Amino acid sequence: DARVTQTPRHKVTEMGQEVTMRCQPILGHNTVFWYRQTMMQGLELLAYFRNRAPLDDSGMPKDRFSAEMPDATLATLKIQPSEPRDSAVYFCASGLVQGQPQHFGDGTRLSIL
Amino acid sequence: DQQVKQNSPSLSVQEGRISILNCDYTNSMFDYFLWYKKYPAEGPTFLISISSIKDKNEDGRFTVFLNKSAKHLSLHIVPSQPGDSAVYFCAASFLSGGSNYKLTFGKGTLLTVNP
Q1: Which residue from A25, A26, A45, A111 could staple onto A12, CB 3.0 to 4.6 Å apart?
Q2: Which residue of A35, A37, A55 is the best one to mutate when testing the B interface, meaning the one whose CB has the most B CBs within 10 A?
Q3: Can you say whether residue A82 is alpha, beta or left, with left for phi > 0 and alpha for psi between -120 and 50 degrees?
Q4: What number is the average pLDDT over the span B10-22?
Q5: Do residues A55 and B99 make contact, with C-beta atoms less than 8 angstroms apart?
Q6: Contact, A89 vs A82, CB < 8 A?
Q7: Percentage of chain B surpassing pLDDT 90?
Q8: pLDDT tens across B95-109, in order?
């Protein structure tokens, strides 16, 4: 089965450091989503892209977060500078067309000390 | 403002019995609904979906029911198996919303199926 691949699976770093999370969507999928899961908020959509163009990043703190798709096989989510409140599991998902389910990667568990 | 609500944080059932997971939504514009299952340390996995033109969709042991007037959907698992123990997320979207691909998720229900 084709899968969404996320790296790293775990990341522990100190406050103020830059964090980069990577996602390889399923080949052929043209829509990529970034979600954050916390105990308090559950699964929140941060941003998504279609055909590598950002469609919506309204869920993302703009001052420190940035999301890009350098090419069709790679999406990145960066946090600079990181803060303890950014500690969460970050999921990437990809999809093909509206009305079809999104497929999730296994997430990056981020801990900011 | 939580647009998709799963009011039961947890549910425990006996193996072989029916599991019923509930979900309510507030936005009447939602017209596509999905259920995802999530095991620890893994990403959510798509389980079953339903569009608002239907009131029921069935796939093996899993059936989703949609009551648009009540803005309520439910997932039935019959018979329940220990391997079904996971967190179940309800999600909603706008199928007819142009380029809006967003999924709005509930906070999940932890299902435990006891042998």
Answers
A1: A111
A2: A37
A3: beta
A4: 97
A5: yes
A6: no
A7: 86
A8: 765 555 788 999 999
B44 and A48 within 8 Å at the Cβ level: the answer is no
Q: What is the DSSP letter of B79?
A: S
Q: How far apart are CA B38 and CA B44, in angstroms?
A: 4
Task: Decide if B34 and A101 are in contact by the 8 Å CB cutoff.
Answer: yes
Interface contact B103-A102, CB threshold 8 A? yes
Vertex A19: Cα angle to A37 and A11 (nearest 5)? 65
List the single residue in A4, A31, A104 with the smallest CB-CB distance to B101: A31
Q: Do A42 and B106 touch (CB under 8 A)?
A: yes
Instruction: Tell if the CB–CB gap between A104 and B34 is shorter than 8 Å.
Output: no
Kindly state whether B105 is in contact with chain A, defined as any CB-CB distance less than 8 angstroms.
yes
Beta bridge partners of A104: A93
pLDDT in the model for residue A50: 87
- Contact present, A112 and A82 (Cβ < 8 Å): yes
Q: Tell me: the pLDDT tens digits for B31-57?
A: 899 999 999 999 999 999 999 999 999
